[in-house]
Amino acid sequence: MISPGTKSKSQDLTPLIELVQDEMQMVEDWLGTNLIDDNPFVGELLKQIFQAGGKRLRPLIVLLSGRATGKDNEIGRLHIILAVLTELIHTASLVHDDVIDSSDLRRGKETINKKWNERVAVLMGDLLFAQASICLARLMNPPVVGIYGQVLGDLCAGEIKQMRHQFNIDADWDTYIQKSIGKTASLFSAGSHSAAILNGQDNDTVLALKSYGLNLGICFQIVDDMLDITGDFDSKNKAGGVLKPVGGDLRNGVLTAPVLYALAQGGKDSERLRKLIEERLVVEDAGNQEGLSIISRSCAIEKTAELAQKYADDACRDISILPDSPYKDGLCALTEFIMSRAKSN
Amino acid sequence: MISPGTKSKSQDLTPLIELVQDEMQMVEDWLGTNLIDDNPFVGELLKQIFQAGGKRLRPLIVLLSGRATGKDNEIGRLHIILAVLTELIHTASLVHDDVIDSSDLRRGKETINKKWNERVAVLMGDLLFAQASICLARLMNPPVVGIYGQVLGDLCAGEIKQMRHQFNIDADWDTYIQKSIGKTASLFSAGSHSAAILNGQDNDTVLALKSYGLNLGICFQIVDDMLDITGDFDSKNKAGGVLKPVGGDLRNGVLTAPVLYALAQGGKDSERLRKLIEERLVVEDAGNQEGLSIISRSCAIEKTAELAQKYADDACRDISILPDSPYKDGLCALTEFIMSRAKSN
User: Fold this and answer.
1) What's the gap in Å between the CA of B276 and the closest CA on chain A?
2) What is the spatial distance between Cα A187 and Cα A155, in angstroms, rounded to a whole number?
3) d(CA A152, nearest CA chain B) in Å
4) Which domains does chain A possess?
5) Contacts of range A336-339, beta carbons closer than 8 Å, 24 or more positions apart
6) Helix segments in chain A, DSSP class H
7) Residue of chain B whose Cα is closest to the Cα of A175
8) CA B41/CA B43 separation, integer angstroms
9) C-alpha distances in Å from residue B218, one per residue of A109, B85, B222, B252
10) What is the reported pTM?
11) Residues of chain A numbered 21-40 and touching chain B (CB < 8 Å)
12) Of the four, A113, A221, A329, B208, which is 20 to 30 A from A15 by CA?
């Protein structure tokens, strides 16, 4: 059950970050480093990109997964590199997303395409992918190289799938979940189970971590899609909060979980929403607002939160086979963090 | 000595391709294959991209290098994959270049950004890089993964360097050669010496092939830069020929070998050229034409061809340590092919 307005304590990642604090600092130091040459302009851009912040959720998943599956809960240099390259791939895809969407702001700061231009942004995205490839090579682990190669493909395929289904009112749940895997969960899962592979873990443990990452990632994407609908209540009432324009997915004709639930509900509201999307009225402010209102007064938001919770529960269940440790608990607490984002809006 | 208008026989790649015909066909079949998912739209785009043609020079370098350094001149599946991924990286960078330059045409056909849009082009470039990563993983060879990671970085760094030096009249030869390595020679060299690595060759042979690829690539880039100046004579006189607008580099303030030579020559013409660039008059048609005329009537073109020939000779000398074979001869003949492009204009 959602209780809007109550900010949950678990929305704070700090206790989880503290579990792997030294490693997170090393990741941070690596991230802004130019691994390719000594071009000062590139170095400056890298610093700007990474100083803009971000939750560093993906490095956290890698480091916690590494410790939770490591001998005596220890991890080494390889896990730091894995955490770095996972964040590099995520950041590269954000830089290209901002070009694709012609976005001016990201996390409240000017995007590379806005501050410089599209040329620089396309190249810097490529350069971040290249830095990730260099890190990947340093792992000297062919299976992990294969996993990340597929992730890169999934990221593009997920975006292309989303683009092709815009305003397609017949988009189904399978398409939605597959797209969420491609866009988000594939990378989460690569990070979690590659961390176990680097520890030389047995197949059962590796598969458990793979499934954990997948479920956590789908949960994350569902919550993100929910915030695209509910975020307005938040940003109206207090500073900070959601920094991207609310209703953006709907405006672009991207049919996410709340929309799918609202469409499936039946009745006059569903019909009207269908018409708003089919006739692309959601592109305009008035149609967009009307669509958001229909979704908000339906049970769609509650059902979306329940769906996200199901994936969160599955993620925790996946790792029940791991030996008890603060890191295993941390991985489970990550699901609470993600769900608390939904509840605080 | 350049003899404009004489089309050299060695401008035909066919005899070299025939040396590795079966393998080149396998490369062609792989190139249009979607390794990521069964999305029909992506499959269609891949076919379009690769059916648009291209000389397949990079796969040819890989396959000839593989045979020239292979036991009994044999190569296997790994060399096919290496050839494929080398062409994938090249193609990905072209797709992104066309976005960056807002180009409408490539090899006489509509670019992805023109035919679809920039979103699709950015994503398809990323997807091609992802396909290359998947191929790279299949090689199961960490040193080769490292070499290609660095190439990806060099490609971006080379483009960024070029962008930062636009209209910079003080750009020097070192900057020019470094940029040529990043943009072109780094990938040529990765292909040639990785082919030797996959054959388990000794260090001397690997280094010889590395240097060969580097020299061949620099030679190729110099000739390409020369065609940007001299290409107009060709496209005016007969169908086909150079398909990109002549003088494009100069228009963008990119200082290539012919420009550097013309600037260094001294005298009134050099001074005028400097002014045309510094005051960005080369951006306009009149200034561009005047600049091209100054370069063409100087000794810059001849000197540029001599410089390219020096790198071609070095490339052939590099591989003199290889045992005699038609493939070693083919590698040397590649330098003649590249130089013949310069001479035919």
Assistant:
1) 25
2) 8
3) 5
4) 9-343 (1.10.600.10)
5) A336/A8, A336/A10, A336/A312, A337/A10, A337/A11, A337/A12, A337/A13, A337/A16, A338/A216, A338/A219, A338/A220, A338/A223, A338/A308, A338/A312, A339/A10, A339/A219, A339/A223, A339/A305, A339/A308, A339/A309, A339/A312
6) 14-18, 21-31, 40-51, 57-69, 77-100, 112-115, 118-139, 142-164, 173-180, 186-198, 203-237, 248-251, 257-264, 267-278, 285-297, 300-318, 326-343
7) B39
8) 5
9) 40, 21, 6, 21
10) 0.87
11) 35-37, 39
12) A221
Identify the burial level of B268 via C-beta atoms within 10 angstroms of its C-beta, where 0-12 means exposed, 13-18 middle and 19 or more buried: exposed
A52 touches chain B (CB under 8 A): no
A126 at interface of B, judged by CB pairs closer than 8 A: yes
**B174 interaction partners in chain A (CB closer than 8 Å):** none
Place of tokens 């209209």: B167
The rounded Cα B263 to chain-centroid distance in angstroms is 25
Any chain A CB within 8 A of the CB of B196? Answer: no
B105 touches chain A (CB under 8 A): no
Which of B35, B100, B153 faces A36 most closely, judged by CB atoms? Answer: B153
Question: Does A153 contact B100 at a Cβ distance shorter than 8 Å?
Answer: no
Residue bearing tokens 């769900």: A339
Q: Are B334 and B11 in contact (CB under 8 A)?
A: no
B169 contacts B274 by C-beta, under 8 angstroms: yes
Using a CB–CB cutoff of 8 Å, tell me whether A184 touches chain B.
Answer: no
Please tell me which of the candidates A37, A100, A126 has its beta carbon nearest to residue B119.
A100
Residues A229-279: tens digit of each pLDDT: 988 544 433 334 445 568 889 998 999 999 999 999 989 999 999 999 999
Give tens-digit pLDDT for B58-116.
Answer: 999 999 999 999 999 999 999 999 999 999 999 999 999 888 877 888 877 888 888 88
ipTM of the complex: 0.82
Best of A126, A174, A179 to disrupt the B interface by mutation (most B CBs within 10 Å)?
A: A126
The partner residue sitting opposite A42, judged by closest CB among B138, B141, B160, is: B160
